[in-house]
Structure to design on (414 residues):
């Protein structure tokens, strides 16, 4: 069971929400139109701000030839990384490449369809949980900017579904969806912790254990066949992310660039260890801070600070990662002012990033300082979001407790 969304919060119909979402996605599609033919010889991806990973990855992932991810070896002499994504992301690319063949424009269109479905699923789950607040996702400018830049809307949809199932007290299904999300992009695995903590806080440890095992089981079920069939190719995602230097959009990059004046941030192993330790320590601090102010807060809402702290402390903050946060504004921090500030700074990061890339490529554009200011401002806004979440006392969607005898062994309400 779940406390229903109050009628007052549903001041807008689902059809109108979907219409708003369609308009946002249409704008996003339009902004990418100049890049969809794959001819970027004039640097249009920077000068027209239409960059998308989808176009080049058909080639760099070597999918146009019919290659099966992980199972068929990559051509080591080809440029770029190959099999660098988790299993479900790679096979989503494989699916759309079967539809498109070797035409990059058709490949982009096929992925637009797939990602649009994911966006509508996310919006539906949010609407069922928080009503009109689903517009935080449906009308987000960053959804237009980043929705079709990579495949992150897929794990976002899995997380939205998992949250819906969790609040409907379908713990096994919630765990399954988190595991599938983690097989698409690892970040949904982080949310197992607050979801399980919520069940333990409610003195329902069995439910938390079912959820954790379901998440682990679904992730293993998807990954194990490839890990057995081709362990080296399957491991490439983990190897690549462990060895990659600090990403342009991370705080680590700014620190390195300001300290050394170089664009390549070394000491990768030290940064890996430091970022993991910093993340764990900051989560513990914020958790205790929230407990001190509101001991009875719904533990599942820790999902928002966990993701924010991961993005702030991690060495990789790809542009589209802001999509991860959008549903959480609707669910746990419906603060219009902070949301607008986050959206403004996240869009500014995109604009200054690719404008600087254009300048770096000799095409003209903004200096790196403008980009670093945008990244720093976004970090400040995210910290303010953390503070606001800790101080927030308004209720979030929450499961309705039931008597233990009403719950069967599979974690479903009888």
């Amino acid at each position: 069971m779940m406390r229903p969304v109050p009628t007052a919060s549903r001041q807008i119909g689902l059809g109108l929400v979907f219409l708003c979402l369609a308009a946002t996605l249409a704008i996003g599609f339009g902004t990418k139109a100049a890049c969809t033919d794959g001819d970027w010889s004039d640097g249009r991806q920077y000068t027209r701000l239409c960059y998308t990973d989808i176009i080049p990855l058909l080639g760099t992932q070597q999918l146009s030839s019919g290659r099966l991810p992980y199972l068929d070896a990559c051509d080591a002499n080809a440029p770029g990384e190959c099999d660098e994504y988790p299993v479900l992301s790679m096979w989503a690319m494989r699916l759309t490449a079967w539809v498109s063949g070797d035409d990059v424009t058709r490949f982009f269109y096929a992925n637009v369809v797939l990602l649009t479905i994911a966006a509508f699923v996310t919006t539906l789950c949010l609407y069922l949980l928080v009503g009109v607040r689903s517009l935080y996702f449906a009308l987000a400018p960053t959804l237009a900017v980043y929705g079709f830049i990579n495949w992150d809307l897929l794990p976002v949809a899995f997380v939205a579904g998992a949250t819906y199932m969790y609040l409907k007290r379908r713990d096994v299904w919630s765990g399954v969806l988190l595991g599938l999300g983690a097989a698409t992009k690892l970040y949904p695995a982080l949310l197992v912790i607050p979801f399980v903590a919520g069940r333990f806080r409610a003195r329902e440890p069995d439910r938390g254990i079912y959820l954790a095992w379901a998440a682990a089981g679904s992730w293993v079920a998807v990954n194990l066949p490839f890990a057995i069939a081709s362990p080296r190719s399957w491991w490439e995602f983990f190897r690549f992310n462990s060895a990659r230097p600090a990403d342009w959009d991370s705080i680590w990059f700014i620190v390195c660039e300001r300290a050394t004046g170089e664009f390549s941030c070394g000491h990768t192993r030290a940064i890996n260890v430091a970022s993991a330790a910093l993340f764990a320590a900051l989560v513990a601090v914020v958790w205790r801070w929230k407990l001190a102010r509101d001991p009875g807060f719904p533990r599942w809402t820790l999902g928002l600070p966990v993701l924010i702290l991961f993005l702030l402390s991690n060495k990789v903050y790809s542009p589209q990662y802001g999509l991860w946060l959008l549903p959480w504004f609707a669910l746990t921090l419906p603060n219009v002012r902070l949301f607008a500030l986050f959206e403004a700074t996240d869009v500014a990061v995109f604009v200054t990033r690719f404008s600087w890339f254009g300048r770096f490529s000799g095409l003209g554009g903004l200096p790196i300082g403008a980009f670093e200011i945008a990244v720093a401002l976004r970090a400040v806004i995210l910290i303010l979001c953390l503070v606001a979440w800790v101080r927030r006392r308004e209720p979030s969607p929450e499961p309705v407790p039931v008597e233990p005898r009403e719950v069967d062994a599979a974690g479903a309400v009888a």
